[in-house]
Amino acid sequence: MSYIIHDFITNFVVPIVVLIVAIILIRATIKILRQYERAVVFTFGRFQYVKGPGLVFIIPFVQEIVRVDLRIHVIEVPAQDLISRDNVSMKVDAILYFNVINPEHAIIKVESFVPATMMLAQTTLRAVLGQHTLDEMLSERKKLSDDLQEILDTQTNIWGIKVSNVEIRTIELTDDMIRAIAKQAEAERDRRAKIIHAEAEFQASQTLVNAAQILSSIPAAMQLRYLQTLTEIGAENNSTVIFPMPIDLIKPFLELMEKNTITPPVVSPKVAPPIALSEVTPVQVPPME
């Protein structure tokens, strides 16, 4: 009986155990890395080198690896409560794009580079946007995104991380602020419309003045204009034509009428000269009976 047990262990159990141990050693020795992965190799806890992609051989129980993904990470920065420079409360969220360019620094310099980058993006978003007004945030969103990207890239460079882009996605305002902005935009459109209308009136009046000066300097031009007006009216088959008579034609008649209607000069009456009292002859009146 013991011979049968010993034979069973020798023929079946031992090969299975050896096979399992061999599989474990092979899996611990050979690592397969994808094209976008790199392996940071540590020997007894000390950094050795960066390997990959493809097959990577390590010494079991002596070396270990940490896989690093080199693809671009997309992180949604949660909405942050902030106050703009003109004291407007709002919520702003953004999207962050970054990737690892130095696997060694990404593993050694920072504990966990993804949460660290996200927390840094949140604080930087509040700090940068808080220095600008609401109008600047709405009209210069691309410039603010570039400023955020430059600041984050400078700070994460020591971690071996490259921030490729930052996009400010949503700026949430209160209902009262939205109505105020709508009124402001409407007032701005009215102002522009009035300015454009005034400029059009000015240009039209200036053109009319120039045309009047040209027509007044050349009398024949006015006659041609009258004839052109008659041609335009006659093309519509009108039965009645009201046409202004040129002032130059009736001007002589008006001057003649003014000369005939001049009133003659008024002759003042002659007053007799005064008579001296010495020249008066006294008249004797007979007494009454």
Quick summary:
With 289 residues, the protein is of the alpha+beta class.
Topology:
Elements: H1 2-29, E1 30-33, E2 37-43, E3 46-51, E4 54-57, E5 63-69, E6 73-83, E7 89-100, H2 103-108, H3 113-129, H4 134-139, H5 141-156, E8 161-172, H6 175-217, H7 219-234, H8 247-260
Antiparallel strand pairs: 1-4, 2-3, 2-5, 6-7, 7-8
Please give a structural write-up.
The chain is 51% helix and 22% strand. It is α+β, with helices and mostly antiparallel strands and 289 residues long. The strands form three sheets. A three-stranded antiparallel β-sheet has the order 3-2-5. A three-stranded antiparallel β-sheet has the order 6-7-8. Helix 3 crosses helix 5 and helix 6 (175-217) packs across helix 7 (219-234).
Question: Which keywords apply here?
Answer:
alpha+beta, 3-stranded antiparallel sheet, rod-shaped, about 290 residues, 8 strands, 8 helices
Helix and strand content put the structural class at: alpha+beta
Sheet-strand content, in percent, reads 15-25%
| Strand runs, count | 8
As laid out across the biggest beta sheet, the strand order is 3-2-5
Written as H for each helix and E for each strand, in order along the chain, the element string is HEEEEEEEHHHHEHHH
Residue runs with pLDDT of under 50 for 5 or more positions: 275-285
Shape, principal axes of CA atoms: rod-shaped
Q: How far is the first residue's CA from the last residue's CA?
A: 216 Å
Mean pLDDT level: 81
Roughly how many Å is the radius of gyration? 53 Å
Largest sheet: 3 strands, antiparallel
